[in-house]
Amino acid sequence: MKIVILEPLEADLLSYLNNNLLKNHEVIYYSTKDVKKETLIKRIDNADIIVSDNTPLGEDILSNDKNLKALFIAFSGLDHINLNYCKENNIEVFNASGYSTEAVSELTLMFILLALRKFNELSYKNKVIGKELLSLTIGLFGMGLISKRLIELLKPFKIKIIYNSLKIHNEIENENIKYVSKEELLKNSDIISLHIPLNENNKNFISFNEFEMMKNNAILINTARGALINKEALINSLKENKIAMYLSDVFEKEPPLNDDHELLKFKNVIITPHIGYYTFEAMEKRAKIIFDKLFDYIKK
Description:
Blueprint: E1 2-5, H1 14-17, E2 26-29, H2 37-43, E3 49-52, H3 59-62, E4 70-73, H4 83-88, E5 92-95, H5 101-116, E6 137-141, H6 145-154, E7 160-164, E8 177-179, H7 182-188, E9 191-194, H8 208-213, E10 219-222, H9 231-239, E11 245-248, E12 269-271, H10 280-299
Helix pairs in contact: 5-6
């Protein structure tokens, strides 16, 4: 089989590429990332298997490879992959779910603490009074691996936690952790953090109505996907001081942002360039997860 590693995975790949299982296959590894359509089409030419990360792969690209049998995506979310096309053409899709649990949950905790101590307003000359976690309520949308790990990290702070997800998770519930409706979470949370996947049902999950329900001193954190929040509603809420602060690692398009991006104009916004998953440990984890799945696949 022809196996194309479409881009560098920012891990030490030598041990994976030297695996005996690959010796009977043609393996092509590209050490540079290039998202231009014409480059991607050329790279995937006649591949049976493609290994990639967060590069968007739509039908306009995948349809040029008639031999394609499987995609191995070294990423958690698959919203950048045309899954309908893959299903219709019997292309199996594998991801690296769980590789960034620690990294993203730690970034979320950092965002929480930066917001409460008003890091965006501080300087070596300027004192600003902050808040402590103990007296606050945090609302988590979604209860997957990242939310569960974040709850563990928050335990020493003894903060009240409410959550909303597709189901009630009895295994985590106690006097400080309760399931609530979406509306209750929006109305009662001092801090709101998004940890849900992006799909057709969740696009614009937070929009004008949701911002109206929030406390005007609420802090909103997004380390999931940019399109979960309606951009126009977000900008309007920041302009009208309907929320106290917005912290985000994700955007409607992948960074870098243009210098005139509207979010850069607000003093009560802290943004990072989609680095929640980006740690040495996470890069190694995702490479191991995705290559283990690849080796299992070609052994069949």
